[in-house]
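Customer escalation, tier 2.

The customer says the design service returned an amino acid string that "doesn't look like it belongs to this structure." They asked us to rerun it and document both sides in this ticket. The original structure tokens are below, unchanged.
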């Protein structure tokens, strides 16, 4: 019963949270809502999208330029309708009910993902190491189709950053 109450509270908070704080600028330590999706590998680095409740977004990503990997950062904003859809996707995935870690011991170097969500005082990290549940795959597809893919041309002019700026812990600490 307690688990159902916590889940219901989390879902209600997801539906209507707001925060004047930024997700990236405050390193996700403050605010009523923050979303982070990292994809790549702990070896080569992660492309990371960070979204605050205000709709402010920070996307850091690697591009191969010649033989060199160059890290870039882009800032943009998503509208309230997109934030509402993101919260809906999190609710549909029952994000706060997912396991903290997924993996496939038979795969030695596959895709890795992490998703971090903060809703008020509730926070959860899900780490996928070579295996992801369908809920995380759908969430990633939503983020790409709705948020990242429509801006791909804009990312061509993203500023070059140091890899350290792109680094994001895989879980809340």
């Amino acid at each position: 019963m307690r688990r159902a109450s916590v889940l219901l509270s989390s879902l209600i908070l997801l539906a209507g949270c707001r925060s004047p704080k930024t997700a990236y600028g405050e390193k996700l330590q403050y605010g009523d809502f923050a979303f982070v999706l990292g994809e790549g590998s702990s070896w080569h680095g992660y492309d990371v999208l960070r979204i605050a409740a205000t709709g402010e977004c920070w996307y850091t990503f690697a591009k191969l330029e010649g033989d060199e990997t160059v890290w870039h950062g882009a800032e943009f904003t998503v509208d309230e309708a997109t934030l509402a859809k993101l919260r809906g996707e999190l609710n549909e995935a029952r994000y706060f009910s997912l396991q903290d870690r997924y993996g496939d011991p038979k795969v030695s170097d596959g895709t890795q993902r992490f998703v971090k969500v903060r809703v008020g005082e509730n926070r959860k990290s899900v780490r996928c190491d070579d295996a992801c549940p369908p809920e995380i795959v759908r969430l990633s597809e939503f983020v790409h189709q709705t948020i990242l893919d429509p801006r791909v041309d804009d990312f061509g002019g993203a500023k070059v950053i140091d890899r350290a700026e792109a680094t994001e812990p895989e879980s809340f600490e």
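Tier 2 assessment: The sequence is consistent with the input. Strands lie at 33-41, 45-52, 56-65, 68-77, 101-103, 112-119, 122-129, 159-161. The CA atoms of residues 32 and 120 lie 4 Å apart. Sent an explanation to the customer and offered a walkthrough call.
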